[in-house]
Structures are given as structure tokens and as C-alpha cells.
């Protein structure tokens, strides 16, 4: 094999690779090198995980105590417990903000752990030296991916369990469903699946773009696009159920606990009405509504429509489908991650050592 000219060494980093060269055990050397290069990101991840997990466990316990004080039901309006829950900086408000933050945690994993893995080597021109050790470029990549990936999976699994526990506590005290918003996206171990996915995507972007800042920007753009698509499309990943619902009844008793209503809003405007039906399922026109309810003022209209057994047509997802939706989304995230890892392997395989 022809010798390849060594690239200029970067102060502070050449010593890392010299240590690997002197180490007879390639895996042990890479283990040390991985820790050396990513120690601050890993330490920061451990500290952040500990803080967030402890905070969420404490908030969940606080919410659970309030729930028990209200006899395991939604606290009545005007009670001291309701005042605590509705406070701007109360446990429920803080919990909601925490869950919103956790939604974006996988992006931080991709940017701070995934992107630098190869982009930093390209940027600082230490890639040639890294791949001239006792192991091949492919072994170098998969060993570091495995070591960092296990760390990401372990830490985000802990966070995901705490998130799921907090989301259920929030659902209990508020009476809200688990099928929408941050409570859905942060439950069912979805943060774990998405973090592993975006770690792999970050690595691939760093390998392809070879610069940390542009790769990080691409990771942010891709994550936001994925988040928008998921929030837009996930309610219809499974064909929704449909039924008629009596006007005046809320969705809970009719659709079941944690149900997600997709369509079914009633619209009544000057001279027109939509999504209103009689008991036999025939559409009710504005003229028909005026005959049944001459007084269309808001104070009497609902009671009149209820008295005349008028209904709306709704599409919804029952709460018992939540595990299926979590499984579909988690499988999708992991599939994206697997494709990204395959792409990273191909990029590394075809990377010229002379490119540095």
C-alpha cells in the first residue's frame, strides 16, 4: 500500500491520535479517544438528564398528590388545588413547559453529539490520521457510533420514562387526553426513538457536508420539517373512526377516554350551517334549523338543538389506539435512523483519505 502524506496536525488533538497509535488494543484506544473527544458533551448530557429526570419525577409526584386530594378526579373549579394547578408558575404550567422542551431534545442530540462525529474530523483535517490507526475507517466509524449510540439510548430511555410518567400525571389532573400535543409526542418512549434517529441523521449530515455549522443548520431544518409533518399527519396514520355525536355532549363520554377528535366542528353563520344532521342522519339546512329553533341566539341555540336531537358528524381516533400510533412513529423514526446510518457507512467507505 502506498504511503499517504500526513496532514498537518492540530495542536491538542494530535496527542489524542498519537495515544491511539501507541495503544496496542484498537478498541480500547477508540474507547478512550471517544471519551476524550466527546467528554464534555457526554458529561453535559448526563447532568441535563439527571436534572430533567429529577425535576419531572418531583412534578409528577406533586401532581399525583393534588389528584389524590381531589379524590382521583379533576379538581373542582375554585378549590385551592385548582388554584395551584392554574397558577402561571404552578406545577402543571411548569410540567407543560418541560414537555415542550423535551420535544426538541432529540435535535440537541443530533447537533451536539451526531454532527461533530465526522464533521469535526473533516473540519480540523484529522481524518487521515484517525483512519491510519490499527483499525479500518469502517471499524472506526461503527465503534464510535456504537459507543455514543449506547450513551444516547441509555440517557434518553431514562428521560422518556420520566416524560411518560409526567404526561400521565398531567392527563389525570387536567382531564385532558394523551392523544395530542406534547403529552403524546413525549410519551410511549418516542423521545428515545427520535433521539437515536436524529443522532444517526446528525452523523450522516456531518459526513456529507463536512462542516459543523452547515451540518447543524441542516439538522435543525430537517428536524423542524419532520416535526411539522408528524404533527400534521399522525392523526390519520390509521383510518379514523366516524360517528354521529349529539349536539351539546362533550367528546369524553361519547368518544371515550383520551380520544382525539380529527373532524367534526359545527359551523353556523348568517344564512348557512354545516355539519348538522337530524336523528335520521339527514343534513339540516339553515332554513330547517330556523324552523326547529326560531331563536338562534347563542344562549338558547344549543339547548334547542339538543332538544331536537340534532347531531354532528365526527371523525376521531379512540384512545386505545395510542400504543399503535406510538409503535408506528417509533418504527418510522428508527427506519430513518437506519437509512441514515447506511448512508453514513457508504459515505465513509467512499471518502478519499487524501481529502483529509
What does this structure look like?
It is a single chain. Residues 1-14 have low confidence and may be disordered. The chain is elongated, with a radius of gyration of 27 Å. It folds into 2 domains: 27-238 and 322-355; 260-317, no CATH class. The strands form 2 sheets. The protein has a 3-stranded antiparallel sheet with strand order 1-5-2. A two-stranded antiparallel ribbon has the order 3-4. It is 65% helix and 6% strand. The protein contains 15 helices and 5 strands. The relative contact order is 0.12. The protein is mainly alpha-helical and 356 residues long. The two termini are 18 Å apart.
Q: Describe the strand arrangement of the main beta sheet, using strand numbers.
A: 1-5-2
Cα-to-Cα separation, first versus last residue: 18 Å
Shape: elongated
On the 0 to 100 scale, the average pLDDT is 84
CA radius of gyration: 27 Å
Count of all domains? 2
The number of helical segments is: 15
Structural class: mainly alpha
Number of strands: 5
